[in-house]
Amino acid sequence: MNLIYVADPMCSWCYGFGETLGALLDEPRDAAPLQLALVMGGLRPYTTEPLSPGRADEIFGHWHHVHDASGVPFAQAPNTALHDPAFVYDTEPASRATIAVRTLWPQHVWRYFKAVQHAFYADAKNVTRAEVLADLAEQQGLPRADFARAFASEELREATRRDFAQVQAWGIRGFPALLAEHAGALHLVASGYLGESALRERLSALPAQDA
């Protein structure tokens, strides 16, 4: 089964949904053989204004719900990237970094994407910064100079815009979203967070939907 995962590295519900998808990838069961394509949705790309303290607190409140649903770890206020007075919640750089890894080292893209999420949410790293994203690539065993060169290129900026445009063309406005290629068509399997059992039930229902 071919799945397309539409997500953003700085989307908290995508972070939680990663546990669900990770379980599916580790043990596909009826979905085997399973292939997962990662497409960047563009949660808050090209933002330029720093996050206000009130908005930071509001977003942090959502993180509690994600933790309760999924169990993924989060840094605690005020020791989060959100609560840095200079923090600008621009999700384009982290998305572009993920696409750089997808382009050059596709076998590492899922692991890198997860590393960016963990760095932002659990380790309070500012993953809008190029040097932080390069550090994470290096920690994954990827050549830092090659990553940095690709990340800074106009080609990768354009590739990132293409991902965002494709997601809009699909009509997807919220993340996470999971599409399945089945019987020659794309099927929306999940729009928003799902637990493992619910996701497996929806995937198992696909043949019946097309019978």
Task: Describe the protein.
The protein has helices spanning 12-26, 53-70, 92-104, 109-121, 130-139, 144-151, 154-169, 196-210; strands spanning 2-7, 35-40, 177-182, 185-191. Strand 3 (177-182) and strand 4 form a beta hairpin. With 211 residues, it is α+β, with helices and mostly antiparallel strands. The longest helix is centred in the first third of the chain and has 18 residues, at 53-70. It is built from 8 helices and 4 strands. The chain has a 4-stranded mixed sheet with strand order 2-1-3-4, with helices on both faces. The two termini are 16 Å apart.
The CATH superfamily appears as: Glutaredoxin
Give the oligomeric state of the chains in this entry, treating copies of one chain as homo and distinct chains as hetero: single chain
Which CATH-level-2 architecture?
A: 3-Layer(aba) Sandwich
CATH topology tier name: Glutaredoxin
Content of β-strand: 5-15%
Rg, please? 17 Å
Low-confidence stretches: none
Largest sheet: 4 strands, mixed
* Proportion of helical residues: 40-55%
Q: What is the number of helices?
A: 8
Strand order of the largest sheet: 2-1-3-4
The total beta strand count reads 4
Span from first to last CA? 16 Å
Estimate the mean pLDDT confidence.
95
Q: What is the count of distinct domains?
A: 1
Which class best fits the helix and strand makeup? Answer: alpha+beta
Shape: globular
Task: Return the CATH class.
Answer: Alpha Beta
- What order do the SSEs take from the amino end to the carboxyl end, as H and E? EHEHHHHHHEEH
